[in-house]
């Protein structure tokens, strides 16, 4: 994957505007989709911990 596409993905994460949670009761957090905190954790993982080049090398 070209670096420009990885950079673009990172930029999109940087400017992402996530909706507020609906305040679902415990046990029903997923009733209206993925909870905001889960998406925030995924974004953090991608930006701070995930090494695409390492995964790419393993796949190839």
TrEMBL record:
Its protein name is Epoxide hydrolase N-terminal domain-containing protein
Signal peptide start and end residues: none
Top-level taxon of origin: Eukaryota
Whose protein is this, by species? Tuber borchii
What residue ranges carry the coiled-coil annotation? none
The protein's matches in Pfam families, at most eight in alphabetical order, are given as: EHN
For the Epoxide hydrolase N-terminal domain, which residue ranges apply? 2-60
């Amino acid at each position: 994957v070209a670096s420009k596409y990885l950079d673009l993905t990172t930029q999109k994460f940087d400017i992402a505007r996530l909706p507020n949670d609906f305040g679902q009761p415990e046990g029903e957090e997923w009733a209206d989709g993925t909870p905001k905190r889960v998406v925030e954790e995924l974004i953090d993982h991608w930006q701070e911990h995930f090494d695409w080049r390492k995964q790419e090398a393993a796949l190839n």
